[in-house]
Amino acid sequence: MASKIDGILGEADMSEEFGIDVKIKSLLYAFRGTELRADETAAFLDAPERVVIDAMERLCNDGVLKKDDYLECPECGMLNDVKQYRDAFVNGTTYECSDCAIDLSRFAPRIVSVYRRNLPM
Ligand SMILES: [Zn+2]
Prior knowledge:
- The protein has helices spanning 2-30, 38-45, 49-61, 82-91, and strands spanning 35-37, 65-72, 79-81, 110-117.
- It has 121 residues and is α+β, with helices and mostly antiparallel strands.
- The chain has one domain.
- It has a four-stranded antiparallel β-sheet with strand order 1-4-2-3.
- Zinc ion (ZN) binds next to loops.
């Protein structure tokens, strides 16, 4: 019985996620060359962020999108390079936000994934 219920819920999930995939693709084609953040896209589409992230990961696997991770400055919201932050952490040096110049190595900034169209320019 449980498997039957799972099957029905699974089908419902599939159609919802398929709808999100299509909406994300339309966003990409509407704004050529744009960057999509999962949190902003979720707010724009009025969809749960987890569903949007799942859809974007699928689009990455399909080669439609590519993903880059950034650190969000807790002060000004600027997106900063993760690798430089990690290098600074390993080396025990400071790493300042490229916009407001606070020392990000004193915080544990949120990692934000930015998705871009994976097309040859
Ligand atoms: Zn900043």
